[in-house]
Each structure stands twice: as C-alpha cells, then as structure tokens.
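Sharing a chain and its predicted structure for anyone who wants a worked example. Both blocks are below, sequence first, tokens second.
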Amino acid sequence: MKLALKVTIGLMLLVIILSVSVWIYLKSSLPQINGVLEIEGLKNKVEIVRDSDGVPHIFALNDYDALFAQGYIHAQDRMWQLEYQRRAGAGRLSEILGTKTLESDKYIRTLGFYRSAKSAYSVLDKDTKMLLDAYVAGINAWIEEEHPLPIEFKILGFKPKRWNPIDSLVWVKMMDLDLSKNYKSELRRIRLIRMFGKERAADLTPEYPEDGISIISPEELSMKSLNRLISFHYKLENWLNMGGIHKGSNNWVISGQHTVSGKPVLANDPHLEAGIPSVWYLNELKGDRLHVVGASIPGLPGIVIGHNEDIAWGITNFGPDTQDLFIEKINPENQNQYWDRNKWVNMNIIEEKIYVKGKKKPIRWAARSTRHGPMLSDVIQSADLSLALRWTALDEGDTTLNAFTGINRAGSWQDFETALKSYVAPIQNFVFADKLGNIGYIGYGKVPIRKRGDGLLPVPGWNGRYDWKSYLPIKQLPKVLNPQKGFIVTANNRVVPKNYPYLLSKEWATPHRSQRITELIEEFTKYGDKIKLEDMAKIQGDQMSLQSLELLPYLLKIKPDNVKQAKALAYLNSWDGVTSKRSIATTIYQAWVNHLGNHIIKDDLKKNQNNDLYTYFSDRRLALFLLDVLEAEKSAWCDNVFTPKIDTCMDAVKWALNDAILELEERMGENMTEWQWGKIHKTQFPHRPFSQIFFLKPFFHREIENGGAHSTVNPSPPKYSKGYKNYLVPGFRMLIDMNDFNHCFFIQTPGQSGQFLSRHYDDLMERHNNIRYLNMTFGRDKASGDVLQLNPVTGVRTTKDYFFKKYEE
C-alpha cells in the first residue's frame, strides 16, 4: 500500500510539474510589451505604447521604422494567424494539416494567387515597396529572435520560416476572394434553370430578370459536375473561413451642417466571417510622412480603414460583377488544348508540387489556364465540365496596395481621389471626410465591359463573342462630393440609378440596411437637431429588422388553431421588429421563417436531390423571394410535390408556425418566456483549424449570445442549417469626429491577441456585443500604457542597410 501510495503521489507530482512547465512555456510565448530591445534592421529608435486594451501606438522618426515596428507587433500578437494566412493563400495548408486541405490547396494553386501576388509586387511604386519591405523586415526580426512560439506551432510541430513580400500580397488576393463571389451565383443559377426552368429559377434568384437571355442550353453542362463543384465550395468556405453569404458592410458620412461640432462625422463597420483572432487589428502609426490610426490587417502594412491628421475614410463592398465563367471546348484528342475562335490552342500549364503532411513525395498538380483564366473545373477533376474563370483580381499588374499607401498619406479630397486611381480589386465604396468640412463618396476598382451578355450565367468561350473588351473608364465610376442633403450612406445597396449606362452588377444587397440608416440619420437631425457620435453608435447598434416587418403581416393573418399558436401570435402582434437577444418574438419569427422555407422550397430541391443547394437557400431566405411567393398566394412553390392535394401559401404559413412551435418546445422547453433569441442565436468565433478538432475546441473557440438578423444595421444572420447560430459580425466598428481626433471610437472583436492565454484574446467580445467602444488616442502626448522601446543595433551593418540607401537617393 505504501509503495502504491508513493507511486500515485509521484505521478500526481509529475503531472503537476509538467502542467506548470507547459503553462510557463505558453506564458513565455506572450509578447514583451515593455523595456528596451535592440533589433537589427531599424534606422532609429521606435516607441511602442500599448494601452490597457492591448492596442499599440507606434511612434518612429521615419515611415520605414514605423512600418518595421508594425510588422514586429503583428508577429508578436498574431504570428499563427500570419502563418495560416500565407499558407492558405499559397495553397500550402496540406504541408501542416494533411490531406483534409488538399482540395483547398489545389483550388488556390489553380487560381494562381501566389503567382498573381508576384506580379503585383513587380509593379508597386517606390514608396509602397519601401513600406512593404520594412513591414516584412519587422516580421522577420521577430521570427529570427527565436521566441517561444504560439502553441499552434508546437501542436502541429513546425516553425515559421522567413516572411517575404509575396506572403503579404497573397493575402490581398484572399481578401478579393472573400468579397467576390459572383461566379458561384452563376453556378447556382444554371443549376436552378436545369431543375425548374428560367421562370421559376428567377423566383429563387430575383436578381435575374425573367426575360433575361439564356446564352447556352442548360443541358450543355453536366448537373452531376455542377453539384460537385458547388459542394466543393461549401467545404472550401468552411476551411478558409471566408467566401460565405451575407458579406457586407455599412458606412456613412455626415457633413458639419448636421453635427454638434460643426465638422463631419464618419462611421464604418465591415461585416466579415467571425473568427478568432479577428481579421482586424487596431493600431496607430507615426513616422515622418505618415500619421494614421485605425484598423490594420495582419499581413499587410499600414491602415486599411481609419484617419490620418487630415482625412478619414471608410469602406464597404460595392458588390460588382467582376467574375465570369467561360465554358471551354476541349480537344477530344488532346485534353490540354481548347478551341479559340478558329483553331485548337495549347493551355498554359504550370506544374505545382503540393507537399502533404505524412507523405514522402509531393503531389504533382497541373494548374491549367486558358486565355480567359484558370480552369476552375479542374479542382473536381471532371471530364464533362470545362469552366475557366475570368476575374479582375487575377489580372497582371495589380497596384491596389499603392492606393492604400496614398490614402494613408492623403491630405485632401484630391489626394484621396488620386490615390484611388491605383485601386484594382475588389471594387469598394469609399466614403471620405476631411478637416476642412468636405464629405464625399467614390466607388473604385476595375469593372469589366463585356462585348455582350450580363454576367449572370456561364458563357461560351470558344467564339470570343462574350469576351471582355475593356474596363469601365475611371471618369464613369460613381462619385459624389458634398451632396446637398448633407450625408452619404452605403450598405452594399444599389449605388447607381437603373438608367446608368454601364453594367456594374445585378446582384445588389437588399436596401433594408441603407434605408434604416437613412431613417435614423433623418430622425436624429429633424427639426434642425444636431447629431453626435453617441447617436452614431445607436445607429451602428440598431437591430430593427425592416425585412421582418415586411413578412410579418402574412404570419399575422393566421387564425390560431390552439392556445399555443394564439400565445405565439400574441408575442408577434406586439412586436416592433427589434431583434434583440432578449426578444421572444424574434425567436418565434425566425423559427417560422426557417420552417416556411422548408415547406416552400425543401420538397422541390430535395426532390431533385440537391442537398447542398437546399442548405444554401435554407440559410439565405431572401426577402424578395418570400414576398413574391406569398403575394402570389397560389404559387407553385407553396404546393407540396409529395402529396396529391394542391396546397396554398397560407397552408404553408400555418404549417410553418406549427412546426416552429414544436421545434422551439423541443429545443427550449414549453415555457415561451424562456424563448429568448440570444439563447439559441449565438455568434461563433471559430479558430482555424482547432475549432474543428473536438478536444482542442474548448480552449480556442469562443461564442456569445447575440441579437440581430439578416437585414439589421447591426447584422447577425442566423444559419438555419446550424441551429440558428451566427457566423458573421461587424468585426470592426469605427466612429470618427473630424473636430477632435481624440474623441473617436473604435472596437474590434474578439480581442487584439491571437494567443489564447493572453487576456487580450477575447476581452473585447462583451464590449463589442454591447455596442461599447475604445476611445483611441492620437499622438504621443495622449498615449499611455506599457512602453516597449526598439533600438537599432549600433555599429553593425544590417541586412536592411541597402533599403535606407536605396530610398534616400
């Protein structure tokens, strides 16, 4: 017994010692935030002041050192994110994750993002190259110091190699991919036409006019291969945490005529997939020509959204159609040739070697492309589907990063507009304000002009009739300066009138968010009242669903069959459309919408064995589609195809309510007072890749109860296929007062750090959820917190000396 007791005690001590050792090691991987460090590569000393929220304020004597320090702190806080991003963008995830990401790597290699990024680097201007090189040198300085690494590296068993400028630029391409999704709409649309014909397909995709041209016979494309290609994209979005539905943003700017300060105020909140860590990282940068604060993106130099000493800017996705699928005719005698107008032409083929963890030899992958672009269909290795992707983001000579260098340093509207002339993709809505009182808007980026066609369906590539002939002239892009009404609002809605002479897109977001923002601005400024930043915060936090109020009357027409239905309808009768996390009516309404969709489209899509397509529509109940169906009353969509009886839309409405009540009782109990929206509607912050590993998920993954819905200004669209969970948030919010740059509010979620043992891993999540902000200071005299001083190594010629000489000449 004594021996057994000693062994037990010994094992317990060993476990404790090992646990403490692991804890000490992990804590040692957290960044040094005070003291003095000597670092090779700097020209002069740099001060990094980290405030209590983990936001660094960088103060340097020159722009090179400022960007060097930004690269250094991005590596300190987000090294795993940087590594995952560059591997995702280069198609190299399989090297560390194995075969589960092989399809993703093949897809990225086929698109050729890394090759495209190399092309972009070659055309950057002198200043932008200098700043990017400085940023890269800062990341490498941290890597070469051989710090204890974040735990992700230890678990997966490798160390990061040196960074290079292409690793940064490839993430620009990945952001393009995240915000450009038109070609997937083309695939879905052609499948719907195959299943239901043009008229009913137009019901499900109301952007497509019923009398729109059908360029090819739908039978020319293999349904089996189309299904496989769409299924592939669902898996891809899951692994990369991007490219999903409901992407969007809000921004608006209000002139001094409507504000308390008499100077413009500007707001922005981009909506991307939620994740931990966030896409965004808050910081301030001060060099010699550069002084800017706002949201940066780890992997990229400078500030993407924010303000400098003279101007402020915000960005939302324009949503243009900049992608087209071309059906190529392949030579039956030679699969590497395609027909180009009057002859067989060789494809461009680049051999890619994809290394896979656990395998000795690399997989040899042929990245094929035609004159239209990469052979997208190759990723599913289909013999009966040949689709090439034409996309502005893959054009050679992408100078987008030049534009952000210019914006960061711009001092006026003219500087801002000049900088944007370098912007390529993805086309965005930029709003602007300056200290002189000007407000403005520009939609910038490359937009194709097609010889014919509207970009809604795949087109023949063999005859040249549907090629792109040019790009929209810069002078024709939409632009507004100092409008008479005194404010500008964009929320991914249509920005040009219907008679605009050029085709920009036919797939705009519904106008509910822009309409609600406009209503609130007008409400706050009626009778000559003046708006303040606190009012702007109320707008950003607004969870009124105008879309819900459009559909609700159809539900309220029901005469209840029982007490439960009567009680549920009583909640809805008094509902004002506010989708707060404590709302019971919102829960009932959302469950009803979910089951209404089941009754209206599930039978049709299931009958055609399109489970992936059904999942897509089950998570995207477009208001236009539901309204059109319910208004028709006897729409064919409402009839259950598996029963002999002809069902009406009101039958579907009532069945949906009954099913909603049954589901909520099963999930939340029979007491309706417990049916609060936030209890089942929780925003998910997945970690890549450990949220997908059962025993690691509890350590890395985060979630929080949330309100909101698909069309609210503060959006939180539920995924019905995931039990009403939410995967998209306004990951960053910004409110700028041009009268006082020390009275500006920022917030991102869930926290600044990417290391789960840091207190800044998720410390902003609650504040963000409750529409609270950080008051970001501007300037060294206002900054306070822990101070880390970076000094150059004296008396040593550094590897970066040639940069200083090169850029001072």
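Comments welcome. Confidence is low (pLDDT under 50) at residues 208-219, 796-809.
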